[in-house]
Structure formats: C-alpha cells, structure tokens
Amino acid sequence: MRLQERVITVTGAASGIGRAIAVQAAKEGAKVVVSDVDETGGAQTVDLIEADGGTAAFLRTDISREDDAQALVDFAVETYGRLDGCANNAGIALASHPLHETPTDLWLKTQAVNATGTFFQLRAQLAYLAKNGGGAIVNTASLAGITPAVGVTAYAASKFAVIGLTKQAALEYVGKGVRVNAIAPGVIRTPIFDNSSPEEMAAFEALQPGGRLGEPEEMATVVCFLLSDEASYVNGAILNADMGATAF
Ligand SMILES: NC(=O)c1ccc[n+]([C@@H]2O[C@H](COP(=O)([O-])OP(=O)(O)OC[C@H]3O[C@@H](n4cnc5c(N)ncnc54)[C@H](O)[C@@H]3O)[C@@H](O)[C@H]2O)c1
C-alpha cells in the first residue's frame, strides 16, 4: 500500500483517466478528494471507491476558476487534516482544426482549462506543500505536448504548457520537498473521444505501437507510482506512457 494514509486530490476524477487515478490511489491506501465540474460522475467515483472499502469525498471545482484551486486545497485539509499529493489531470480536447482555422474561443477555452487551470492548481498546491513538509504532484500532459500532430494546435500548445509548468515547478520547489512530474499518455480509451467517429477511432488504434489504445487503469498505476515514495528521486520527469509512440 504505497499511498497508505496519504491525502490526495485528483482533478477530472469524474471520468476516464482521473477516475482511474482516484480509484487506484484509494486501493493503494490514500484518502482521495475527487474533484470535477461533473457532480454526477464525481459522486459515482466516490461510490466506486467506498464500495471497494476506500475513503473519498467529492468537491465540485472548475480548474479554470482561480478561487477553486485554493478551495480544493482547503477542502482536503478540512476534510482529512492534511494534503500530501495532487494529480492535476482535468483537461479538455475540443474540435480539431488546422491552425489558420482555429477559432479564437476554442483557443482561449483550451488554454483556460488545460494550461491556466493547471497553473492555478499548482500555485495553490505548491504554496501549501512548501509550507507543510512537501509532497508530490503529477500533472497529466499528453503525447501531444511532446511531439506535434496535425490539427490540434490549441490542445498541443496547452499540453506543451503543462510540460513547461511541470519542469519549472520541479526545479523551483525541490528545495521544499515537493516533487513535480507529469505523465504523457498516448491514446487512451476514455470519454474524451466521445465526439470522434468510429473511423477516427480505428485510425487512432491502427497508429498505436502494439495496435491498441491504452486503458485508463494503465495510466493510473503510473501516476500512483510517481505520487509514491517509490519515485523519491524522480522530479521534473515527463513519463511517456504511450506504448512507444514517442520512442524516437
Ligand atoms: N484519453 C486520451 O487519449 C488522453 C491522451 C493524452 C492526455 N489526456 C489527458 O488526460 C486527461 C484526462 O482525460 P480523459 O481522457 O480521462 O478525458 P475525460 O473527458 O474522460 O475526463 C476529463 C474530465 O475532466 C473534467 N473536466 C473538464 N473540464 C474541467 C474543468 N474546467 N474543471 C474540472 N474538471 C474538468 C471532465 O468533466 C471529465 O470528468 C486530460 O487532461 C487529457 O487532456 C488524455
């Protein structure tokens, strides 16, 4: 139980990779603060954890709202007495466009959630962890933040920002006992692809090394490793969990 008694917040925990992280962290002994804009899905994640004998509580937060980041830290401390780790996982992937056709509102919304939202979370979390004995943070970046892909300018730029924030925070806070890492998932089977056609999904699948998509649970175990003391000398790393898609 490598996260025994740790208090861990997970954003975007109502669905997909975030739900899997929350469930896995609880299995590994953590008390989990499940956070999302989706209250129904968040409550379902708490139910899943509690049905398995774990401990979890839900707080509705929108990571693009500045005040919600501090509210999440405060809720964790008020509910479980402390905060030890954070999985900053919430993110959006809106429609694909060539760069010159990317609508301004799509660009701004994507940056507001994925880039600025991660910044707001980190700022509140680092202030707390630096003052309270340290901890571990894992951001969810993307394969799209490592290597460019056609048609996803806004999303890719936002995930390059997540990687930049991860490295910046890792260096600035290592002296305060805080490790900050990221995972860069390949293509993972989650509801984020609900708007993709079966043809697009088949094309994604065919492109993956090994010929299959990843499963959310395969990301969750990696995130829990990085949150745990097993990764005590890992800081500022971007762990590519993509079956080798970026092995070049
Ligand atoms: N699925 C993939 O192939 C893949 C690949 C690389 C990276 N990612 C990243 O993984 C993360 C999780 O994605 P997923 O595939 O599980 O998608 P998902 O859509 O299943 O889950 C995303 C969750 O984030 C929540 N969310 C969206 N905007 C939010 C906001 N402003 N505040 C709080 N919560 C918000 C949603 O309600 C949802 O529950 C995202 O950051 C995504 O960019 C996914």
Automatic annotation (TrEMBL):
It comes from the Bacteria. It comes from Georgenia yuyongxinii. NCBIfam families: PRK07231.1. Keywords: Oxidoreductase. One of its GO terms (molecular function) is oxidoreductase activity. Pfam families: adh_short_C2. This is SDR family oxidoreductase. Belongs to the short-chain dehydrogenases/reductases (SDR) family. InterPro entries: NAD(P)-bd_dom_sf, Sc_DH/Rdtase_CS, SDR_fam.
